[in-house]
Amino acid sequence: MQSLVIVAHGSHLNPDSSAPTHDHADTIREVGAFEEVRTGFWKEEPHLREVLRTVEGEEVYVVPLFISEGYFTEQVIPRELRLSGWDVDRWGSDGLSADQATLAAADTGQTVHYCGPVGTHEAMTDVLVRRAETVTGDPDVGEGFALAVVGHGTERNENSAKAIEYHADRIRDLDCFEEVQALYMDEEPEVDDVTDHFETEDVVVVPLFIADGFHTQEDIPEDMGLTDDYRTGYSVPAEVDGHRIWYAGAVGTEPLLADVVLERAADAGADVGDSLSAVRETTRVATGDD
Question: Could you tell me which InterPro entries the record lists for this protein (predicted)?
Fold first, then answer.
């Protein structure tokens, strides 16, 4: 019996923080890829420390719903799951290439295939493009549009920017958007100056965040000049300095992210059958794109 556990940060303060995790778990559960699908959180219940005890299967695939490799994926999650023999070198990663490590859970004895975060998987590139399609309502979005991929950026974790640059480069190589730029909240080039970085009139802005929260709902819209007060809302698209800004909100809320979770598990050896194609079809219908 193979089981899937999707682990995420969660929040005591923002009840919407865990919504994408539950939504993607429901999508995967509905296509029958695993005999059981569970969720676990750092800041909500069920807690990471207890989640494996809710799983009946002896073989468990754990996929972190995080953007980058760092403190949570390398230290917190393995510690809370009590993965025997864990060492970050088991991933052999350069900050982008974490794949999977097979370990034993010390207190339950289960075999755990611990996967890299969804944010660094190549399939996340497709989710970013789909997010642009969703916000513009155009399944062929690209020509006449620029794309900004926005990350937090931090000197404390250099891997934070690596994921942003990685996907911006991959989308640029697709040659479908007029311009593609990686922007950040806390380092240069900053999202505050979004219109300074593009000549194209229409700019789609997609934050590479898992859930909508303080940064994506308040900081970024105000920083870009979409509104003076996030509580009054803003238009999509919004006119800013001669540009139309199509603000998409957190990429992690895009239904297609369920596909990346499955891709991570499949890369670790899970038998997902035809569930990948089923999820892609299900999520395309969910976004109204026939």
Answer: CbiX-like, Sirohydro_Cobaltochel/CbiX
- What value does the mean pLDDT of the chain take? 94
Give the angle 133-134-135 at the CA atoms, nearest 5°: 100
Classify the C-alpha dihedral 120-126-128-134 as positive or negative: negative
**Residue owning tokens 């009590």:** 82
279-289 per-position pLDDT tens digit: 999 888 656 65
What is residue 75's predicted lDDT score, i.e. its pLDDT?
A: 95
Distance CA 244, CA 153 (A): 25
Q: What is the reported pLDDT for 284?
A: 80
Alpha-carbon distance of 170 to 120, in angstroms, equals: 12
3-state DSSP call for residue 249?
A: coil
Residue 47's domain comprises 2-120+254-286
Task: Give the three-class secondary structure for 9.
Answer: coil
Same domain? 281 vs 215: no
Same domain for 115 and 27:
yes
What is the C-alpha separation between 65 and 117, in angstroms, rounded? 6
Low-confidence ranges of the chain (pLDDT < 70): 154-157, 285-290
> Is residue 83 within 8 Å of residue 112, measured between CB atoms?
yes
Q: Say how far apart CA 38 and CA 25 lie, in whole Å.
A: 7
pLDDT tens-place string over residues 15-34: 789 999 999 999 999 999 99
Question: Taking a C-beta distance cutoff of 8 angstroms, is the pair 220, 207 a contact?
Answer: yes
Please tell me whether residues 235 and 264 are part of one structural domain.
no
Cα 111 from Cα 281, distance rounded (Å): 31
Measured between alpha carbons, how far is 201 from 195 in angstroms, rounded to an integer? 9
